[in-house]
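User: quick one, fold this
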Amino acid sequence: MPKCYPVSLILSQRPCLVVGGGSIAERKVLSLLACEAKVKVVSPALTPVLQELVKKGQISYRQGEYETSDLTGVFLVIAATDQDEINRRVAAEAMNRNVLVNVVDDPPRGNFYVPAVVRRGSLQIAISTDGKSPLLARKIKEELEERYGPEYGPVVDLLGEIRHDILEHTPDSRKRRDLLTSILDDQVLQLLARGELKQAKERVINAYHRGRSQP
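Assistant:
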């Protein structure tokens, strides 16, 4: 099994296709929508959740079996039907067009794997075994979910805001590097590990202001 190259795809407003309308397809659709992708679903039937998304105009839907023309203009495809023959066809035709494709029950047939992911706002920790042991990836994910709680999300947002401000208003490269280094230390990480979000954010902000005041 080949080694995988890890990437984080920007899917905002990208056309993505999900072939299938069951519970697995539903999970894939929701994960794509969380990345602001433009999602189209092709399937003879849909789960109630997917039906509601169609009614709200959050996804587009073509009722029926998969057709080659469904790949037109698509950036990424997920084959999530319960029929191996259809999934294989989707994968083969997508790969012939150099389209990213994942087959949920048979990832080696596509050209990318979906890793197990711990999400805390903009913080994402992905675990992959190159498809060799999804079970191990899931167990590691469960451990990381306990280690990295929801408080990490707001701190990542704060660090992002401060970083943007530093990059925009600090032309001196050395000063910029020192500021970026100073706003996050081991004490902040220790506070987060204890779930002390308020104190962690205060420490980041104080470090930033101290750094700005120094010549």
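User: anything notable?
Assistant: The mean pLDDT is 95.
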